Predict the 3D structure of the following.
Amino acid sequence: MATELLAPLDLAFWHLETTGHPMHLGALALFGPGGPDRDVLALLAERAAAVPRLRMCVRDVWLPVGGAAWTTDRSFDVHRHVRRLAVPDADFAAGAARMAGELMERPLARGLPPWEMYLLTGRPGGPFAVLVKLHHALADGLRAVAIGAGIFDQIGGPAAAPRRTRTVPPRSWLPGPRQIAGAARDRLEEFGQAVGVGASVVRATAGRLDPRGAAACLAAAPSGTRRLATADLDLDEVRRVRRAVGGTANDVLLAVVAGALRRWILERGEPLPGAEPRALVPVSRRRPGGAPDTGNRLSAYLLGLPVAEADPLARLAAVRSGMDRNKAAGPSRGAGAVALLADQLPPLAHKFGAPLAGSAARMLFDVLVTSVPLPRSALSLGGSPLRAVYPLAPLARGQALAVAMSPYGGRVHLGVVADGAAVPDADLLAGCMGRELAELLARTT
């Protein structure tokens, strides 16, 4: 039976989960209209069963104490994970989003491989959708894309020819003096980084004993419910704004989120916050061409969202300046790099320290804003073209809102995941995204 210890950050995500705060991410993919060439449910089951990572479940281990390992599930049955549900709504896209929000509330079964797929269907011959749920211990955004690639038509066909393996000369398993010295130096550097990050976290949370001062509308008590809203932006319009003002397309999208939050707060009739809401902006630490199955490799930046600023161009300039400072410091420094501390803690500390760490998220940031890159090529499933894919991020304990973005097919698809009680009007916030981009475009062209 194959086993693999959970990487430190994977173990942290596994222990952070509670019944009311599931730690799975996901995606809602819309296909059609036009019926598929074959039974999509059977196709999903067949292709998912062929992905080795999806046959693995988490089991506790004796050593290291408090650790856990990925283990091949000998009783794996793909039909426990792949299901079909009917969407009764006349507006299929809206009904699929509503149903996906309800399904995202439910934690994944801990004793099974931690993932699920739902085929959501409407009228015969009409559009259909696939909701994918993956535990964050199983996948970060990039690894989720790699897993999902095995489901689509262009990857799900005949396997590529195997690569030629290079002969590696035998060597002693005993490390030499240079390897010992190098390992010691790396550990000292990592420890130094961890100390710096820890100090930054303490400074960042100081003065935020009542985070409601930064974002009252985002600080309601969590209910465990989920509401999903979606938005679509024209990618060419995002790029036109970027070309006019400089920076990156991601800077523009972050400014769109900041402006949408401002509009949403004002349309709710609430006062603008006295302090900038903080966004946690995840950053991948994967090396280009690196193996996707090496555990979560994440850091993050903290970014103040200038929602009190009335001028959209000034908001964009502030976002760009903040991100430039973050990038100059790098993803291994600052309070946003708190995920790096996971590597310095023993497994037992993750197991018993998770409740404390989960509660601290509210003190550090107010909203998660993440970007998930997708393949540029056109994708399909069972012959039906992929029309849109909305990434779905998990909510940390005490958080009410997460915004995830993916460009595909000339559009940027945004998935807004909200606590259903704290943010019952997530659709209103999603609608503000397009209006904010339109205003930025009007001011720059």
In short: The first strand starts at residue 3 and ends at 5. The first helix runs from residue 8 to 16.
